[in-house]
Amino acid sequence: MDLNGKVAIVTGATRGMGRAISERLAAAGATVALVARDRTALAATEAAISQAGGKASAFATDVTERASVEAMTAAVLDRFGTIDLLVNCAFWGPPGSLERTDETFWDRTLDTTLKGPYLCTRAVHPTMRARGSGTIVNIGSLAGKIGEDNRTAYCAAKWGLEGLTAALQVELHPQGIRVHLLSPGATDTSFWRQNAPGLTSEQLARFIPPETIADAVMWVLGTPEAVHVPDIAIHNFRNPFEGKGSPFESEG
Asked: Which residues in the chain come in under a pLDDT of 50?
């Protein structure tokens, strides 16, 4: 797919799915605005895309803060003149049982994983509405469809993202703006290696590569504008936890 001349914002762009999506969009010709909080990681991702022949610029942003998101959006428009695509990929969701999920833990999870997509969508909406076109892709999770042990706040946030997407699909479609939700299963990112260190090589081999999620984003972008693409659930071909229980069962 040729994305030359298109400008994309990707949040959570420095790791895992966000980085894979950013690299794939840049390889297709898009100019990618890389959004995350870590300036060092942003610089590394920007350099990697540039070395591969792509176009990307880093915008250090806290997606949980309205002022930060609005400043980033204004900076992207000032530099590139337009925003054609927003991919909401940033999330925060370590394991947390009900007992562990105090108000601070709850707020950080929902602010990053649900409020962030809301703020970013609200910020890019005026320019997309004025142009009568645009695409928003929210990266959800199967945890937004099926409850999981020790993921109280994360499940709540991803279920909320599913509801937000469904509402925006109805509201924004008449304005020429398409909104999609991709809901992956367990994906091979640093999250699992940090929060479930007991995973075996056999289990990790069953995880979805981040590049597969990038492939799905590209597929969605390639569908005709008149075609409504409902929520896409991306399941693991084989369940990494089959017969082994939850990887978070020992968390207190």
From this structure: 250-252
Domain locations in the chain as residue ranges: 7-234
Quick check: pTM over 0.90? Answer: yes
Which position has the token pair 């999770």?
Answer: 141
| Largest distance between two CA atoms of the chain | 53
- Distance CA(245)–CA(148), nearest Å, equals 11
Could you tell me the CATH superfamily of domain 7-234?
A: NAD(P)-binding Rossmann-like Domain (3.40.50.720)
Concerning whether 154 is annotated as a catalytic residue, the answer is: yes
| Amino acid in position 181 | L
List pLDDT tens digits, range 102-147. Answer: 999 999 999 999 999 999 999 999 999 999 999 999 999 988 898 8
Catalytic one of 59, 91, 92, 154 = 154
Taking Cα atoms as reference points, which of 70, 78, 87, 83 lies closest to residue 23? 87
